[in-house]
Design a protein that fits this description.
Layout lengths: L1 H22 L4 E10 L3 H9 L18 E5 L8 E5 L6 E10 L3 E10 L3 E12 L2 E11 L2 H9 L2 H20 L2
Antiparallel strand pairs: 1-7, 2-3, 3-4, 4-5, 5-6, 6-7
């Protein structure tokens, strides 16, 4: 009986510690990665501004080869919309271009529906560097309490950032053709 009591106290302390650590997490997150791509912004921009071209470089395209895609609005630029529904790895959501400045930046609203609902902002920023272009991929958003609890055990910057790194490398290959 004493062992059970100690186990329950230890469990209570563990859960309490996790909740305290989660409460101390920031209310917002930011994940950012950059890559210098040996191409002019004019060659890279179309891959960011046309959501249909995401299939050529997005790291999430590998997660579900049977994902259902729907595109609406203009073919590219502000107002273009991409809806997807896939397996549990890819989930379900919507990506909408909210701002597009040719060869400079593309801003998007990212709405996840599954596996967890959430809204984030994404931005691609292109900065000329001689004959090359630095491409920065930035995602920001709120951190609800459940996300804070998850982040006690997982490094979101590392998890999402590794996907950004993979995507930027693929973007460099397709834009450099």
């Amino acid at each position: 009986m004493k062992v059970l009591k100690y186990l329950l106290v230890a469990l209570f302390l563990f859960i309490g510690g996790v909740l305290i650590m989660a409460a101390r997490q920031p209310d917002n997150f930011k994940v950012e990665r950059a890559l210098l791509i040996p191409a002019k912004a004019g060659k890279i921009f179309p891959y960011l501004n046309d959501l249909r071209k995401g299939r050529e470089w997005s790291p999430w395209e590998e997660g579900d080869l049977q994902v259902k895609r729907t595109f609406s609005g203009p073919a590219a630029g502000k107002g273009a919309v991409y809806d997807w529904a896939g397996n549990k790895e890819v989930g379900k959501g919507r990506l909408t271009i909210t701002e597009s400045v040719e060869n400079e930046r593309v801003k998007l609203a990212l709405h996840f529906i599954e596996p967890m609902e959430g809204d984030n902002n994404v931005e691609y920023i292109l900065t000329p560097k001689g004959e090359a272009t630095e491409v920065r991929w930035v995602m920001t958003g709120p951190m609800p309490f459940m996300s804070k609890v998850i982040c006690v055990f997982m490094d979101m910057d590392k998890m999402i950032g590794s996907q950004f790194d993979k995507g930027l490398a693929k973007l460099a290959k397709v834009a450099g053709k």
